[in-house]
Design a protein that fits this description.
The protein is an alpha/beta fold. The chain is 35% helix and 19% strand. The chain is built from 23 helices and 31 strands. Helix 1 links the parallel strand 2 and strand 3. The longest helix has 31 residues. It is rod-shaped, with a radius of gyration of 42 Å.
């Protein structure tokens, strides 16, 4: 197929070959844009006196560029002496890239980013190619900034296509992750030929064995859409997950059908920002009308950025050939021809290098934004941050290399957001599962090694720690204040820590030795940590009180009113009521005196050294580290008496035999507070507090 503009015989034709897979929707859409660009360029006022006419010779590659550009068929693709190649499809084979390299004709690429990471394509671009789309470094930098500045998301798993397109992006991704101090614990590479069952197996692996819940998907649409549909099917598009897509997928969001968009709800992505304009709005209406005329079987087509790049590519190429002094489309033939069917028989283009030089200097305001090539690669001022919600992508912010993330480009010149957080710079984001809460980025994996937490058995102090075990069902339930604190700390960690509680007890469920033995089990690697009650602060002995409460009854006179009471029954009532008031007053006064006196009581012993000197018995909680601490303070082991519960504690002070009775107790502050709350009228806490490790 040939597309061009009719003109006078004085206008020189400039032939350009276009190779597209016409079964591809993107190719069909791009071809419509190119034909409109030709018409608009040569009908515009600024170009009414053009000297040359750009003619496009289009060839359907049928999905195989190498075959389309095979030896002997080159003239059928481009017509005679084509001076440039435009392509919207990149093949894995080096044979395709060898054609423009060999004959030295410019190759302009305008479709999705496969070429960015293809070694042969890079060689073409460096030598005779032009990238009319955005490069990878900047887009990936923008992509990583979309992580919403969430400090908790310090691990990311890239899911990428196992091709040169996917593998070539990994170095850029790795560098970008390192710049924001984010670790990559695993890389998931999925070949395009992978079956749905194999994708399902890989996603299950990520869901069950990995704690990371932040995924960056770098794939072409054909594979990426399968991944998201399977991820939704197994519940990986639910609350707690965070999915980010590169522009390889984000650029096509407007072209996806409703079932695909439904499987991507909550996904974040970036794509080059296209500013709205009247020119773009008018073009969109014209383009849709023309596309439906050419492709009536396609319903509701939506313009995407590749259509705009295709339009701007033709405009740039047409502008460049107008600047050439002369058009010499001849090819310099080789002196020695070994094979008449070989592409080399075409020779080397004489106009190609000059055309490439002119294209590189072209600058204009295109549909996609400013068309400006730096190192023969299209540049962009900003990236659009999208959130897939409802029927498509919703803009939540703009990212530029110089300003970072902003709600709107109009804020670039203001300082209102300069000191605000990334979260505040973005509009509200709807995450997977219709959640508005930023995912923390990790969960405890369903499989993997767990941290074993040793829990000492403590009878009588269930408020702090209680272990309930059901031997028939083989489960253990651990509760208490200490466990609540431990779980709260684990929840605050920026990574998942799978753990299990292991009761430190004998086979019959009773307490197994002391804290020291528990620590020794950790040393033997039979457990990793121990949850103790409170290894923080201990106090010297709690001393009993000698209660000498004096109850004082005071009589409050009740004066009779001055009116004379003539009725005898009235006199009796007054007398009885007076006695009732006296009794009530006495009881109230006695109770108040008792309460006030308790606060002024003094213990019989106040000094630890006095206890040691008198060899008095001192109580401690059985199994506690306090036993060793008291020994180091100078107490004889025979004078240290254990108790197991608050009831044992109280009973130890009341035993009849002096050798069994304690005169003081030493314990950790939380336990003492509990004991004092229970026996507030009998004991008090005195002395200094001792810090322990």
């Amino acid at each position: 197929m040939v597309m061009g503009q009719n003109g006078s015989s004085a206008v020189d034709e400039f032939k350009v070959g276009v190779v597209l897979d016409m079964d591809s929707l993107v190719a069909k859409m791009g071809l419509t844009s190119m034909s409109m660009a030709l018409s608009d360029f040569y009908s515009s006022t600024n170009n009414s006196f053009h000297k040359r006419s750009l003619v496009l010779h289009t060839r359907d590659s049928n999905g195989d560029i190498v075959d389309a550009a095979s030896e002997g068929s080159l003239s059928h693709i481009f017509g005679k002496f084509a001076s440039a190649i435009i392509s919207g499809q990149i093949d894995k084979s080096a044979a395709w890239y060898g054609i423009p390299l060999l004959v030295r004709i410019p190759m302009v690429l305008f479709v999705h980013a496969n070429y960015h990471y293809h070694s042969c394509a890079i060689d073409v671009v460096k030598n005779i190619g032009v990238q009319a789309i955005i490069g990878p470094q900047t887009s990936l930098q923008a992509l990583l900034m979309v992580n919403i500045g969430n400090k908790a998301q310090r691990e990311v798993v890239p899911i990428y296509e196992d091709t040169e397109y996917g593998n070539g992006a990994i170095p850029y991704l790795t560098d970008a992750f390192q710049d924001i101090d984010t670790r990559v614990p695993y890389r998931s590479a999925i070949p395009p030929s992978t079956t749905d069952d194999q994708i399902l197996e890989e996603l299950y692996k990520l869901m069950i064995t990995m704690q990371t819940r932040v995924f960056v998907v770098h794939m072409t649409p054909s594979l990426g859409l399968r991944v998201f549909q399977i991820a939704k099917m197994i519940g990986m598009m639910s609350e707690g997950y965070s999915w980010i897509i590169t522009n390889g997928l984000a650029n096509f969001l407007s072209s996806f059908n409703s079932s695909v968009i439904d499987s991507m709800q909550g996904v974040l992505g970036v794509r080059p920002y296209v500013p709205q304009s009247k020119k773009l709005d008018t073009f969109t209406l014209r383009w849709k009308k023309k596309f439906l005329q050419e492709n009536p079987d396609i319903e509701n087509p939506k313009l995407n950025i590749f259509c705009l790049w295709a339009y701007d590519t033709i405009w740039a190429l047409a502008s460049a050939i107008e600047k050439l002094e002369t058009i010499n489309s001849r090819f310099l033939k080789p002196k020695v021809v070994l094979n008449s069917s070989h592409i080399a028989t075409l020779g080397v283009s004489l106009i190609g290098p000059k055309l490439l030089q002119e294209i590189s200097k072209i600058k204009f305001k295109g549909l996609s934004d400013e068309f400006c090539l730096v190192d023969r690669q299209l540049q962009t001022e900003a990236f659009q941050i999208l959130n897939v919600v409802g029927l498509g992508g919703r803009e939540v912010g703009i990212w530029t290399p110089s300003t970072g993330i902003l709600r709107d480009l109009n804020l670039i010149r203001t300082k209102t957001n300069s000191d605000s957080t990334t979260k505040n710079k973005l509009r509200a984001i709807i995450w997977p599962g219709e959640s508005t809460v930023v995912p923390k980025g990790w969960v405890i994996p369903k499989m993997g090694k767990k941290l074993r937490i040793g829990v000492p058995i403590k009878g009588g102090f269930s408020e702090f720690l209680m272990v309930t075990r059901n031997n028939s069902l083989n489960w253990t339930y651990v509760t208490g204040y200490c466990i609540d604190v431990f779980k709260a700390v684990i929840e605050m960690l920026p990574y998942a820590v799978p753990y299990e509680f292991v009761p430190f007890q004998k086979a019959d469920g009773t307490r197994a030795e002391s804290y020291d033995d528990l620590i020794y089990q950790v040393y033997l690697q039979r457990g990793q940590l121990g949850v103790n009650h409170y290894l923080t602060t201990a106090t010297p002995p709690t001393l009993p009180l000698q209660l000498h409460i004096t109850v004082t009854a005071s009589i409050c006179p009740v004066w009779q009113l001055e009116d004379i009471i003539l009725n005898n029954w009235g006199r009796c009532v007054v007398i009885i009521w007076t006695f009732v008031l006296v009794i009530l007053s006495s009881c109230y006064t006695a109770s108040l005196s008792s309460m006030l006196t308790v606060y002024r009581l003094e213990p019989t012993v106040t000094d630890v050294h006095e206890l040691i000197k008198n060899q008095d018995n001192v109580g401690y909680l059985e199994g506690s580290f306090v036993f060793g601490m008291l020994q180091r303070m100078g107490f004889d082991e025979s004078n240290l008496k254990p108790y197991k519960s608050p009831e044992d504690f109280d009973e130890a002070f009341s035993k009849l035999r002096k050798d069994d009775r304690i005169v003081a107790a030493s314990d950790e502050v939380p336990y003492i507070n509990l004991l004092l709350a229970r026996y507030c009228d009998k004991y008090t806490m005195v002395g200094s507090k001792y810090k322990t490790s």
